[in-house]
Write a structure and sequence with these properties.
Chain A: Keywords: Cell membrane, Membrane, Transmembrane, Transmembrane helix, Transport. The structure holds 2 protein chains of 2 kinds. Chain A is mainly α. Chain A has 17 helices and no strands. Chain B is an alpha+beta fold. Classes of the chains: A mainly alpha, B alpha+beta.
Chain lengths: 309, 360
């Protein structure tokens, strides 16, 4: 499979090289004609679209290939090279959406991701407010320490979580994974939200208190609408990181709450290489992320900057 | 009656407010005048209850309100920045204090429309604050302060970020609006002429201390000390250190100012003489005026007035003259000081003239 991909990549590369060799003579000719610097530039500009286009093609290639495979039969995939499905089939998708082994994977993945996002955002909101508005002993150190939680590999925490959750009968439930993912999602949520909150002038809080708002009422009625986009971005990041995390999700579940990514690896090992099925599962795994990205597309850059733009 | 008793506010190692005692009466207009960082905002936050004093106490109508949260006090505050709730319409912004207080719908509507009409906001009630101009945003904030009908209204340089025309208009309007309600009205500003235009009482602030509190005109005319005089002068106060000898102040260089009659008795030593830029003139204002020769440094012409910056001995003076006055730089001209308008301060900066403070 990989060799096929690389082969295609090389071919693309060849085409690219040939295309790139054409422009220089044209621009040289323009340069020879005196006083036509502007037109020379215009000719160069005509090929400027080439670089991003090639880049995007390279980026999209694996996704296209996955989509391509998902509509092929496993035999065709293994049989040889084809740029598009010769015998188009949606059998893989039907299998996934009707077989509980498959769709339960999605359900458990989605449930722990949602639980995690809800916990992370609701816990991070007041914490971020405190970091944004109050000065207290060691606040800066604590704030930085939060972020360092993200720097430890999840594998470090897999064993303690496994033992702890087994002891308190939380093992193999969506809650186990959701709580474990809080380890890295809450610090992230606090950091992003703090950035957004610090963008709201403190005087708005004070004006609300002067008007007579109690803190909870102010927070829900006045403050949260002001950082709505920040909350959206934070929720997206929590969703994303929880959705793509595999190690903890796999370690802390066995049967009942198995995440989709783990289901995918198991199917590959038991019933041979059902590549079409795997590809379809892969496509369906990308879909939720793509949908969520669509909603926060205008704010996402600010989120990556942790709200500090 | 709002009373601050020996209030001090320290943040970290810096003292923002230093031992301030102040009494403000109901229905009074009070101006806090001082340069940036003098502590005007800090003092207002203490009055409002947004901050708790490090030491000292705040009393309202005979009750100690130190440490009582701002929600439980009946105050309104408007900031220099235009602070509104961006997610709400102008109507909801103005209605907000009434809604929180749980007022009836009909009453809210009446109050909001009254305040909006007063501040010419009626056409914008359905818009959100951020879609309005700066002046309209600030008027929304002011309208919210009006509907609250608070017993203490604090305006922290409310007009500083507005354009000239609107500032003039609102400055005349605001004291009238709040005077009718019998509230304690406090207005912070950095501009001496704004304090004079507002009238009422003025407290001059410098480095966290109140240097003087009294009727605005009195503070302006008879400052207790040099710091107050400097705070209450724009363009800056002209000063010069002279030695008193008998009946005149002398500077090595031939300048001699007669000592005002009421100060005849003060000791013969060094004094700082201060006078306002408009008490320095090109024409002899009175037979007793003293002529000095000074070198022109720069002339700023605003149209109806000219500010002539002069170098005299080792000090820099500003002369305010009507009309357009053109001088070459480095030209030496004769100017007159009117001894009737000089202020005399001793070595400690205290006024040598006996003054009375407003009963505290």
């Amino acid at each position: 499979m990989t060799s096929v991909k690389e082969g295609l990549g090389d071919k693309r590369g060849d085409i690219l090289m040939r295309e790139q060799t054409t422009p220089p003579p044209a621009s040289n000719a323009a340069g020879l004609q005196s006083a036509s610097v502007m037109s020379g530039r215009g000719r160069e500009a005509r090929f400027l679209w080439l670089v991003p286009t090639v880049y995007i093609i390279f980026l999209m290639l694996p996704i296209y290939w996955l989509l391509n495979m998902s509509f092929k039969t496993t035999n065709e995939i293994l049989g040889g090279f084809s740029l598009w499905p010769r015998s188009f089939t949606v059998a893989s998708y039907v299998e996934i959406l009707t077989n509980p082994v498959w769709y339960n994977g999605y359900i458990s993945s989605i449930s722990y991701v949602f639980i995690n996002t809800a916990i992370s955002v609701s816990v991070a909101l007041p914490a971020a407010y405190a970091f944004s508005r109050y000065r207290f002993l060691g606040d800066k150190h604590l704030f930085f320490w939060l972020l360092t939680n993200r720097m430890a590999p999840p594998a470090v925490f897999a064993l303690p979580f496994y033992q702890l959750y087994s002891a308190i009968n939380l093992f193999d439930t969506p809650w186990a994974v959701a709580l474990a993912h809080c380890l890295f999602n809450i610090p992230l949520a606090v950091w992003i939200l703090e950035g957004f909150m610090s963008g709201v002038p403190k005087e708005i809080d004070e004006t609300a208190f002067i008007d007579g708002y109690s803190w909870p009422r102010f927070f829900v009625k006045i403050f949260m609408p002001l950082i709505a986009s920040g909350i959206g971005v934070t929720a997206f990041f929590c969703f994303m990181f929880s959705w793509v995390e595999l190690l903890l999700a796999k370690t802390l579940t066995s049967v009942a709450a198995k995440p989709i990514a783990a289901v995918m690896t198991r199917t590959a090992s038991t019933s041979g290489y059902e590549l079409g099925l795997l590809a379809a599962a892969g496509v369906l795994t990308i879909v939720p992320g793509a949908i969520v990205i669509w909603f926060v597309r205008n704010y996402i850059a600010k989120g990556f900057a942790l709200g500090r733009v | 009656m709002l009373e601050l008793r020996n209030v001090t506010k320290t943040v970290g190692a810096t003292e923002h407010i230093r031992d301030v005692s102040l009494t403000l009466q109901h229905g009074s207009l009070n101006v806090l005048l001082g340069p940036t960082l003098a502590g005007k905002t800090s003092l207002m936050r203490l009055m409002a209850g947004l901050d708790v004093p490090t030491s000292g106490s705040v009393w309202f109508d005979g009750k100690d309100v130190t440490g009582i949260p701002v929600q439980k006090r009946n105050v309104a505050m408007v900031y220099q920045q235009f602070i509104n709730y961006p997610a709400m319409t102008v109507y909801e912004n103005i209605a907000s204090p009434l809604r929180v207080a749980g007022a009836e719908r009909a009453k809210i509507d009446k109050e909001v429309r009254n305040a909006a009409a007063l501040l010419k906001l009626t056409p914008f009630l359905d818009r959100t604050p951020l879609s309005l101009s700066g002046g309209q945003q600030q008027r929304t904030a002011l309208a919210r302060a009006i509907v609250k009908n608070a017993s203490l209204v604090l305006l922290d340089e409310p007009l500083a970020n507005l354009d000239y025309k609107l500032r003039e208009e609102l400055r005349a309007e605001l004291p009238k609006i709040f005077a009718a309600t019998g509230t304690i009205f406090v207005y912070a500003t950095t501009e001496p002429h704004e304090a004079l235009l507002l009238g009422g009482n003025t407290a001059t602030l410098s480095e966290g201390r109140i240097t003087q509190f009294g009727p605005t005109i009195d503070v302006f005319r008879r400052p207790n000390d040099l710091v107050t005089a400097r705070t209450f002068a724009d363009p800056p106060l002209n000063t010069i250190v002279l030695k008193k000898s008998g009946s005149s102040f002398l500077l090595d260089g031939g300048v001699s100012l007669p000592v005002p009659a009421e100060l005849a008795g003060i000791a013969d030593t060094s004094y700082t003489i201060g006078f306002q830029p408009h008490h320095l003139s090109l024409a002899r204002p009175s037979p007793s005026a003293v002529a000095v020769r000074a070198k022109v440094s720069v002339t700023e012409i605003t149209g109806s007035e000219s500010f002539v910056h002069l170098d005299f001995a080792d000090v820099r003076w500003v002369m305010l003259e009507h009309g357009i006055q053109v001088f070459e730089p480095d030209q030496t001209i004769e100017v007159f000081i009117d001894p009737r308008h000089i202020m005399v301060f001793d070595a400690n900066g205290r006024s040598a003239t006996p003054t009375q403070m407003l009963a505290a």
